[in-house]
Amino acid sequence: MPPTPRASSSNEAALLLKLEQLTGGIDPEKSDETWVESLVVTAPEPLQLDDPDDDLKRELAFYNQALSAVRVAQERLDRLGIPHVRPDDYFAEMVKTDKHMNKVKMRMLREQTDIAAAEERRKQSANKKFGKQVQHEVLQARQQEKRRNMVEVKELRKKRKGAGDDGFDIEVDDTPAPRLKTSP
Questions:
Q1: Same domain membership, residue 67 and residue 115
Q2: What's the domain count of the chain?
Q3: What domain range includes position 60?
Q4: Are residues 17 and 75 in the same domain?
Q5: What's this model's pTM, rounded to 2 decimal places?
Q6: What is the DSSP string of 82-139?
Q7: What is the pLDDT of residues 63-106, one digit of tens each?
Q8: Sequence-distant (≥ 6) Cβ neighbours of residue 83 within 8 angstroms
Q9: Is residue 76 located within the same domain as residue 105?
Q10: Are 36 and 78 in contact (CB under 8 A)?
Q11: Rounded to an integer, what distance in angstroms lies between the CA atom of residue 41 and that of residue 70?
Q12: Is position 179 within any domain?
């Protein structure tokens, strides 16, 4: 469904008539006594928008206009000596009870501890996997070393068998040595 074209966004004559009816013909901005009752601040000039259909620009213009009106009102209140800022020692009544806020705080703390515990479990699992991997690598290295040693031992045995040499430079005497007699 295509958007319908907007009618004029303001009927200035009707707005001024309504303002006249609401204020009773009294301009609240003229005198300080009536202004304090209403705190009405009117922008000095109307908004001029290039494209009234651009929502972002329109909202920004409204924001800036309202911000300047607040600044004007603050200056006027300061000039009149009327306080408009909450005192530092003012404590308003809480909407939520302390009991409810303690429940909320406890739930948030529990969620934080649960998240921390889950993270710790994740780290321990990763460390366990890493430890198993290291242990497996160490076992494999030991097995390779054992295999290498066994191969070297077999090669040495083959060399000794093939050479007929037992690897010692001592000659063996095949004759038995005489026994010494002991007296009874």
A1: no
A2: 2
A3: 12-80
A4: yes
A5: 0.39
A6: ---S--TT--PPPSS-HHHHHHHHHHHHHHHHHHHHHHHHHHHHHHHHHHHHHHHHHH
A7: 999 999 999 999 999 999 999 888 888 777 778 888 999 999 99
A8: 77
A9: no
A10: no
A11: 8
A12: no
